[in-house]
Every structure is written in C-alpha cells, then in structure tokens.
Amino acid sequence: MQVCIFTEPHRGATFADQLRFARHVEERGFDGFFRADHYQAMGDDDGYPGPTDAWVTLGAIAQATSRIRLGTLVSSATFRLPGPMAIIAAQVDDMSGGRVELGLGAGWYEREHTSYGIPFPPLRERFDLLTEQIEIISGLWTTPVGERFSYHGKHYQLTNAPALPKPVHPTGPPFIIGGRGTRRTPELAARYATEFNAAFQSVEEAQQTFQRVREAAERVGRAATGRAPLSLSIGAVVACGRSDAEARRRAEVLYETNSALPSEDPVIGSPGQLVERSGQFAAIGADRTYLRLTDLSDLDHLDLIADEVLPQLDR
Q1: Residue 143: what pLDDT?
Q2: How many angstroms separate the Cα of 274 from the Cα of each of 180, 304, 309, 310?
Q3: Which of 161, 197, 216, 311 has its CA 20 to 30 A from that of 258?
Q4: Reduced to 3 states, what is the DSSP secondary structure of residue 197?
Q5: Cis bond upstream, residue 74 (ω within 30)
Q6: In terms of C-beta density within 10 A (0-12 exposed, 13-18 middle, 19 or more buried), how is residue 231 classed?
Q7: 202, 208, 210, 211 alpha-carbon torsion, rounded to 10°
Q8: In degrees rounded to 5, what are phi and psi of residue 70?
Q9: pLDDT at residue 226, as a whole number
Q10: DSSP β-bridge partners for residue 100
Q11: Domain spanning 2-312, CATH class
Q12: Tell me, what DSSP letter sits at residue 227?
C-alpha cells in the first residue's frame, strides 16, 4: 500500500506553504505529494491569498524534491488545451526526473469557471473533451522523436505537431482517472488510465466503484491488449490526534463553508483508526491511499502519521 498526501491549496496556501509541506512529506517517508487543481475555493471561503496554479507549483516542487511522486487529483479538461497540457506535464516530468503523474477529469465546479472566464460546457461535452484530451496527450508523448502527430476530433484538431518535448519514460507519465461516475468514468479509466481513483468515499462505496471499473476493464478487453492491470486507489479525509481533543481540533478545518460536497466518511480520531481504515482499503483492492490533510502549516500532523501509522502498514 502506497501512502500519498493530498492537499487543497485553493483554500489559501501560498507556494512557500506548499513547498515546506512537500519537503516534509518527502522527509517523513510518504510516497507522494498530490494537489487539487482548482482556481477558487468552494462555498463562502475564497481562500486568501488566492489560488496557485497546480502545474507551476509542481514544477517548482519537482526541483526541490528527489523521491516522492508528484501530480494532480485532478486537472480539469476545461482548464488547458491538450497540446499545451502535454508540453507542461512532460516538462515537469523532466524537471522531476520522471516522478510526475497526470490526473485528468471532466471538471465539475462551475463557480470557478464563471469567476475566471473559463468556458463550462454541459457534462456530456466535458466528458467528450476529456476523452479527446487523453488521446491527444498520449499520442503526443508516444510519437517517436522525429515524427509528427496529427489528430482530427470533434473538439480538437492538431496538424503535424512536433510531439515535443518528451517525458522521461517512453509511454509518458501515468494517467489517473477517477470520480463517482457510474458509466463513462469507469470506461474511460479502463481504456486509458494507469490508475483509477475512487476519490474520498466510504469503504462500501469504493468497493462498488472498484467493481464497476473491473467490469468495464473486462468489457473493453484491457487484458487482451497486454496492458498492465488497472491500479486502484482511494482517499481518506484525515484528522488524527494523540487525544480526542487534538483530533477534533484538526477536524474543525476539514470542510469548506457551504461547500455542499458529498459525505466522505472522514477518519477523525487516533492513528490506530487510520491504520484500520487503511487495512479496509487494502482488503477491497486498493494499492494506494491518498490522505487529505487540510492545514498545510500543521507539520506535526504529518509527523504523527509518519511515526504511528506508516510503520504499521504493508508497504
């Protein structure tokens, strides 16, 4: 079981906050640092001092770390055109020495699109955009050096693209696709992804979601293509403490005001409870867990989990 840390800098973290936190994530033995890719906080919390761009931030963090995996959960297909996205992710991958993972999704938070003038088409169209983006990015990364890449889809057309720069590995960084969708999301993951992420769900919900993804992989014949089995991951919203009072104090900042997010079955309590939840995740097939920690100034929270949880997990 890999254990990565997931953060939400759109709630008001500076780059310095994120850099300090990511370095501590690496120092304390976690497997990765992943961040949300949003341009506005949810609900009434506008998150002063404002958002930081996910990929600008990850590029800088890549230069300041040496081991941990780095990526987004997830970048919205509405934010960036697929050609530039392929260039950006390949460049950050090179800056990190091949440690980048690209999480892509259809986008869901209309308010940030309206605020910053980003088009927000209907859901069906957003999924179409996502599908074409994955095909284009994969095509650009895997086109041999010296050859050109063209693509003619409904939403994007590329003609004789040099398909440069290249990421570190010939097949490119892993793709992460995830979410709560019951039809198109599992199929997209089965066809294109390296990892499917069940987001922050209860164990029971995640088990059902994983089963849908496994069934989708059978339908599309993933195994017959010779591709590796789809990796499965899940997240846990975490507020651990050495005492009940400490855990409750950390839980006070878990959610954004009026965010209207679905129930995420948080782990609020002792490190032992997090160990137990991690075991439940492993039992349903997850091989990676993302721990969502809200307060990037709380390095002691990382220390507590590193000291009392990581040694008890099968890693």
Answers
A1: 98
A2: 23, 11, 7, 10
A3: 197
A4: strand
A5: yes
A6: middle
A7: 160
A8: -135, 140
A9: 87
A10: 70
A11: alpha beta
A12: P
CA-to-CA separations, 168 to 64, 84, 132, 172, 196, in angstroms, rounded: 18, 17, 23, 7, 22
The Cα–Cα gap between 102 and 75 comes to 8
**Beta-carbon-side half-sphere exposure of residue 109 (alpha carbons within 13 Å):** 20
The answer to whether 305 and 291 are in contact (CB under 8 A) is yes
Domain-wise residue ranges, the chain: 2-312
pLDDT < 50: residue spans in the chain = 257-260
DSSP calls for 228-276: PPPEEEEEEEEEE-SSHHHHHHHHTTSS-TT--PPP---EEE-HHHHHH
Please name the residues in contact with 251: beta carbons below 8 A apart, sequence gap of 6 or more: 239, 266, 268
**DSSP assignment of 104-170, as one string?**
EE----HHHHHHHT-----HHHHHHHHHHHHHHHHHHHHSPTT--EEEE-SS-EEEEE---S--SST
Between CA 172 and CA 85 the distance in angstroms is: 13
- Cβ atoms of residues 64 and 31 within 8 Å: no
Q: How do strand 149-152 and strand 157-161 relate by DSSP bridges?
A: antiparallel
State residue 3's pLDDT score. Answer: 98
Query: CA-to-CA distance for 185 and 162, rounded, in angstroms?
Result: 30
Two tokens at 269? Answer: 């309590």
Task: Count how many Cα atoms sit within 13 Å of the Cα of residue 262 in the half-sphere of its side chain.
Answer: 7
Rounded Cα distance between 68 and 166, Å, is: 21
Task: Write the DSSP assignment of 2-54 as a string of letters.
Answer: EEEEEE-GGGT--HHHHHHHHHHHHHTT-SEEEE---SS-STT---TT----H
The conformation of residue 312, written as its DSSP 8-state character, comes to G
pLDDT at 260: 43
Contact 60, 15 (CB under 8 A): yes
**Residue 296 to residues 13, 21, 54, 83, 236: CA-CA distances in angstroms?**
7, 6, 15, 32, 16
Handedness of CA 152, 88, 198, 171 (dihedral sign): positive
